[in-house]
Amino acid sequence: MGTLESGSEIDGFRLGEVIHVGSMASIYRLAGAEGPLPLVIKVPRLGPGERAVNVIAFEVCRMVLGALAQGPHHPTLVAFGDLETTPYLVMEYIEGPRLSDWVRRAPVAAEEIARLGSAIGLALHDLHRQDAIHLDLKPTNVLFRAGEAVLIDFGLAHHNHYPDLLAEELRFPVGNWVYMAPEQVLGIRCDPRSDIFALGGLLYELATGRTPFGNPRSSRELRRRLHREPVPPRALVAGTPAWLQEVILRCLETDARERYASAAEVAFDLANPAQVEITERGKRDRPPGWRRRVQRWLWARKFEPAPCPPPTTAAGPVPIVMVALAAPPRAAALSEALHDAAGRLLAADARCRIACVTAVPPAAALSGEREEDTPTGRHIRHLVELRRWASQLDLPEERVTYHVLESEKPATALIDYARVNEVDHILIGAPQSGAATRLFPGVCGQVVADAPCSVTVVRARSSV
Amino acid sequence: MKLALFADIHSNLEALTACLAHAQALGAQRYAFLGDLLGYGADPLAVLDLIERHAAEGAVVILGNHDAAVLGRPDDTLNSNAKAAIAWTRAQLGPQQLAFLEDLPLVVRDENLLFVHASAAAPEQWIYVTSLREAGDSIRAAAGAFVFSGHVHEQKLYYMNAEGGPMLFQPIPGVPIPVGKHRRWLAIVGSAGQPRDRSNKACYALADLERERLTFFRVPYDHDLAAQKVRSAGLPARLARRLERGA
Fold first, then answer.
1. For B101-134, how does the pLDDT look when each residue is reduced to its tens digit (9 = 90+)?
2. Is the per-residue pLDDT at A316 higher than 50?
3. Touching check for B94 and chain A: CB below 8 Å?
4. CATH class belonging to B2-245
5. Which of A142, A256, A462, B154 has the CA that lies 20 to 30 A from A34?
6. Closest CA to A248 of A293, A211, A285, A282
């Protein structure tokens, strides 16, 4: 089946204007459809002269989209035709700018990249926690609608609940070679961190206007990413902030184990640049020297791709635990109890990450004369308190972050924080009698009632 | 049309009853029993009676290696516990049950479906399909039909990729898998009566032939009662523990 005229009919669906003619499928607006969703119909290019992967991609797209829960980050599948007689997919039409619009204007400002990247990270996380992996992320496959990223074209995706129809199908790895992760080059299609690599590629391109590994034309060129590191963005665009480079290069690590463990974590870091711990990665400002290149080449000879993480249906691979701490600190016994509770969660899952959060009233309302009473002074004092509390947990820097939220409504601020940062579990101290309770009545109760995740209310063991 | 598939029932009445009830609740209209109806468990008569009644209404029933052993056909692959259970089972059966077993086929082909206990490549050799090579042989021997089999006690789904190479997929219980007719498939439905993958839940599969979907299920059942009956019957204690632990 080649390109069809608009106005022709398939299975009772009338084709409207052509939106896109690609190498694998053509997409048309659906004419005369009246319903809550604007719709498109996608018709694969099949028949003599077309590639075998087209039909498999069509089958995969139907299978994966059909399995995903309706949500804001991918088009909803509405109807599909029989694969052997009249293959087509009817799905939601996504209207909005594409990431390619920004890529054309690259280099883009760091704040803008963080906003876009964080939105893509959340969309990927939504996919990954349903046990699906996109595996073909590229600037034309990401759209933005009302500030949220929408991923399209699931023809090369993988879903852990279904047989992978594309595994070992083709001699060359399928997908866009520019953004393809090293393990995908080696034929591995079950690691969600491959999408994180591709996201790193997109961020790199937004930051520098160049792709991290050029535009490979042969499989030899494609395999180069197994042993060659990208030129650091700061060597190409001098003003690139270290935090952005840190995030980009961590996404682009050859070994999936060295990347972020979850897309939510990438979104978290991009949404909170001040919290990014900058390592040597973020500080690099020139291409790797010959010594480093030889080292990498030797390392790559022994490179074994990481095993795919086990499927998850419940939550993201890296749980974020938020500990809501009162300011000023309350009874030592409660602080101790929160400690024990956090310690147990950390021991139960070695990847788990802690966000220490405190909510305080806005500084202006209470600012005084002395240095420590100025807004900045108070902010720092709260951060110091948080750090002091966390220091006993003895965690590596990258597993703990500190946040002081200023708000008249502490409970709302805590809940919003948990929602935006995809927190999996909140630990909060039980209300006690005393000044703190009188000052913020019902913070704990409101968090328990409205939090988007599990909440554990921690109470110090009674001395009786 | 929904087709329920049971294999390796091994005289476990509680497991079979639970799986049948589960399948009926989901609208099963056709049934296939893929061999090893007997052996190991304590209820050969009741299990055979239940299966015979389904057979009278058109269910497919296939002979397995344990059933063949009950009929006195030699099988060197059986261990001492299995042999003890075969001897015990044989003593329970009357001429009517033996005649039913004698008439069971090794393979049934119904249009584009093929039912066999072990491998379609050589049904009488009781080959264990535990690798891609054996799965490929079985799929190729079926000449285009969807193969449903048992013998191996764990649930597996094999399929051919575009280049004719067999692939393995580990199904997730309860998730319907699209199994298009244009592809070639081999489903091992898992053991209803003696699961061995460290779960004591009974295995079976349900195929929706119109919608081209196959769902593997794990069904909890009263394994304590089944194990208790094994002990009371004087069968090897190891066979009772297996039902409790699923290993």
1. 999 999 999 999 999 999 999 999 999 999 999 9
2. no
3. no
4. alpha beta
5. A142
6. A282
Q: Please report whether residue A311 resides in a domain.
A: no
Residue A279: strand, helix, or coil = coil
Give me the mean pLDDT over the A252-275 stretch: 94
Q: Are residues A108 and A87 in the same domain?
A: no
User: What does the mean pLDDT of chain B come to?
Assistant: 95
| Element of type H or E holding B206 | strand B202-208
Q: Which of A68, A83, A313 to mutate to test the interface with B (most CBs of B within 10 A)?
A: A83
Of all residues in chain A, the percent with pLDDT exceeding 70 is 88
pLDDT score of A51: 66
Which one is predicted more confidently, A327 or A280? A280
- Residue A439 sits in a domain of what CATH number? 3.40.50.620
Q: Check whether A320 has a pLDDT greater than 70.
A: yes
Question: In A, which residues are within 8 Å of B164 by CB distance?
Answer: none
How many folded domains does chain A comprise? Answer: 3
CA angle (A377 as vertex; A376, A382 as ends), nearest 5: 95
Indicate which of B169, B181, B210 best probes the interface with A, i.e. most A CBs within 10 Å of its own CB. B169
Q: Give the separation between CA B67 and CA A143, rounded to whole angstroms.
A: 60
Residue A200 and residue A51 share a domain: no
Please report the pLDDT score of residue A48 as a whole number. Answer: 65
pLDDT exceeds 90 at position A276: yes
| Co-location of A193 and A77 in the same domain | no
Q: Report the amino acid identity of residue B120.
A: A
Residue range(s) defining the domain that contains residue A53: 9-92
Positive/negative CA dihedral, A73, A75, A78, A81: negative
Query: Picking from A157-161, A276-280, A330-334, B185-189, which range would have the lowest pLDDT averaged per residue?
Result: A330-334
Chain A residue with Cα closest to B162:
A169
Instruction: Write down the pLDDT at residue A211.
Output: 96
Nearest CA in chain B to A131: B172
Show which of residues 126-185 on chain B sit within 8 Å of chain A, judged by CB atoms: 157, 159, 161-163, 165, 167, 169, 172, 175, 177-178, 180-183
pLDDT given for residue A64 in this prediction: 94
Strands B177-178 and A454-458: unpaired
Q: Identify whether residues A346 and A406 lie together within a single domain.
A: yes
Q: What tokens does A321 get?
A: 């635990």
Domain boundary among A268, A301, A334: A301
Cβ count within 10 A of residue A274: 8
Residues A165, A84, single domain; the answer is no
pLDDT at A366 over 60: no
pLDDT over 60 at B149, yes or no = yes
Cis peptide before A328 (omega within 30 of 0): yes
Q: Are residues A251 and A127 in the same domain?
A: yes
Q: Are residues A78 and A161 in the same domain?
A: no
Same domain as A137, residue A51: no
**pLDDT above 70 for A317:** no
Single-letter residue type at B132: L
